[in-house]
Amino acid sequence: MKKLLVLLVVLLVFTLVFAGCKSTAPATTTPPASPTTKATSPTLTPKSGGTFQGGISEPYSLGYPGTMTGQTDGQTSSQGLETLFIFDKQYNLVPLLATGYTTDPVGKTITITLRKGVKFHDGTDFNATACKWNLDEYRSGGRPELKSVASVDVVDDYTVRINLSKFDNTIVNSLSNGADAGRMISPAACTKNGKAWAEKNPVGTGPYIFVSWEKDVAVKWKRNDNYWGGKPYIDAIVQNRSADATVALMDFKAGNRDVTAGVAPTDAKTLEKEGKYLMIIPPQGQVPALAGFAGDPGSPFSKLEVRQALSYAIDVKSLSDGFGLGYYIIQNQWAVPGTWGYNTSLAGYPFSLQKAKDLLTKAGYPSGFKTTLSFYNTGQIQVDESTAMQSMLKAVGIEVTLNPLLRPGFADIASNSKGFTGIVRQQGFSSPDPLLKYAGVAAGQEFTGMLVPQEFKDVYAQAVAAPDAVSKQKLVWQLESLAVDKYCMQTFLYMQPSPIFKNKRLHDDLYGEMPFYYMSPKAWLE
To answer: In CA terms, which of 97, 148, 238, 366 is 20 to 30 Å from 507?
Structure first.
């Protein structure tokens, strides 16, 4: 019932937005007064001061959105770089630096009104000219999110109009904290100092101002006393980089961190039993998926039967039970369960060694074959999970050599069009709009070499151009059916909403409660 309610709410929001998406009377969103925050406890009064201690994965680019990769860079920089929109707890899109927007599918335009009185950390104004510069700069890098944008016009000081080569209903979502296209940086700072400097020195509009980034140690921020949303309570934020998850956990338990995220399920069970911390299960999580290289007709994975055999050979429930310990949610798609994009009718490939063997024989590999499995090595649990899958595939004759990668090597495969061989373990956050997850793949810019059939590209294009919520959902579900049931483009495993634990002195932060690890500027330390 709860999932149905969430689905109805999301569909209602989409309907309200799209209902006015006509050239004669476009709809406008109603902006909140400030970023969404939860009510302060009636027994506690917020206090100023203190330093928030958190943790991060090592970022690649902190201050230049066009070269940010994955979710790490955007989430780390979000203390200082804000987006035009954000998603709230119910995955409704709400304005942040924007105040509202209208869409015109017939005229192929999106008009965005901007918040007044906002300044970048260098004292320059955030306005329509700055917004246009940011969107044009992002477009110049060839990233797929804004590929359908033909031009950006300044209508007035606080209004921009995005002109599209073809209508694209994912554009506004791409300008949220679920992506990087809508992160606003100071044009003056970047123009003066260059892109390479900007990557390491974020200058945005956010509640905290960048202080320093010491590689493999920490990223530091200080309070922005002139923040447009009101002076933050916390004096400073330190995002610590640990050698591994064990060290991060030890720091947290020793009281050196206020939050520890991405906690391994075994450790989460221990912390949960101790009862000394606040535990949050995020509304979304990483979704690992296996994709085989199909770019060469000679590759085994160019054959449907082999891709299906790969899916049947993986005992997802055993992996989920063994590694997730009840925290993981088995799913076979990118969409967040319970949201409008989640397709409950997908059949998938329930574990069956016999079906896997039969399909390999049919494909001409009765004795199997040798291949590699490349994966982003973020910790021992990824190694152990990959080792378990290596054993499962060996049971059907597929001999796998593991290829653990550090962030730069994985980024080349995932985002930099460098391609791969064998199998790659993809990973990405579940999304309220599955089209966002397929944008890079459909454009041939992410995981280059995986199968992307023309039929999939055609339906993707139709879904992106859908003028209303009902037709968009129908096409998205069709797209997901093609990806999974017809072409078996990927072998999805599960969603990993890794538990977050917080020191109880931290209040009103919303970290982990809202999508994409948004942290409220109203957070305070007791």
So the answer is: 97
